[in-house]
Specification:
mainly alpha, 2 domains, two-stranded antiparallel sheet
C-alpha cells in the first residue's frame, strides 16, 4: 500500500496555484509528477472511447428500429430538411442548426397522438 501525505490545502487550492503557474513551471511539474502527464494523455482517449461506444450503441438501436433499412436521401430528417439536404450542408450550418435545436425546451412541445402505422405526409 502506498503512503499518502495529507495536505493542509484543498485540491481546489492546488488547482488555483497550478493555473497561476507559467508554462515552464507547469512543464516542470509534469516532469516531477509523471503520472499527471500519463493521466492527461489517457483521459481524452477514455472519453473518446466512451463516446464512440455510445455512438455505436445508438447506431445499432436505430438500425434495429429501421429493420436494417437505410434512410432514403429524400426522407424527411430534421425540421424542413430531407436527409440529403442536411448531409449537403456545410459543417458550420449543421452546428448552428444543432445549437438552435438544443435550445428548444422539449417539455413545451405539443404532443400529438398518432396511430401506430402513421407515416409522415410528403
Amino acid at each position: 500500500m502506498e503512503a499518502r501525505l495529507a495536505l493542509p490545502v484543498s485540491i481546489e487550492q492546488v488547482a488555483v496555484v497550478i493555473k497561476q503557474m507559467s508554462r515552464s513551471d507547469r512543464e516542470r511539474l509534469l516532469d516531477l509528477v509523471p503520472d499527471l502527464r500519463q493521466m492527461s494523455l489517457h483521459a481524452p482517449r477514455a472519453q473518446e472511447d466512451k463516446e464512440l461506444a455510445m455512438v455505436e450503441r445508438m447506431h445499432g438501436e436505430v438500425s434495429r428500429a429501421l429493420g436494417g433499412q437505410l434512410l432514403s436521401l429524400s426522407e424527411p430528417f430534421l425540421g424542413d430538411l430531407t436527409l440529403g439536404q442536411y448531409l449537403e450542408l456545410p459543417e458550420e450550418e449543421c452546428g448552428r442548426l444543432w445549437d438552435a435545436w438544443a435550445e428548444i425546451d422539449l417539455e413545451e412541445l405539443e404532443e400529438l397522438d398518432v396511430h401506430l402505422a402513421a407515416v409522415p405526409a410528403r
